Amino acid sequence: MKHAHTSHAPKPRACGILAHVSSLPGPYGIGDLGDGAYAFVDFLEAAGQMVWQIMPLGPTGYGDSPYAAFSAFAGNPYLISLDELAALHWLSRQDLDAAPAFPRDRVDYGPVIEFHVAMLRKAHEAFVRHGTPDQRRALNAFVKRAHAWLPDFARFMAFKGAHHGAIWNAWSTGKEHVTCARPPGLQDEIAFHTFVQWVFFTQWFELKSYANDKGIRIIGDAPIFVAYDSADVWAHARLFHLDGKGAMTAVSGVPPDFFSETGQLWGNPLYRWDVLRRENYEWWIERLRWLLKTVDIVRIDHFRGFEACWQVPAGEQTAVNGAWVKVPGLSFFKSVREQLGDLPVIAEDLGVITPEVDAIRDACGFPGMKVLQFGFGGDASSVYLPHNYAPNTVVYTGTHDNDTARGWYASADEKVRDHVRRYFGRDGSDIHWDLIRAALASVSRMAVVPIQDVLGLGSEARMNFPGKASGNWQWRVTGEQLASADAARLRALAGLYGRRTDGTME
Question: Annotated catalytic, 414?
Answer without folding.
Answer: no
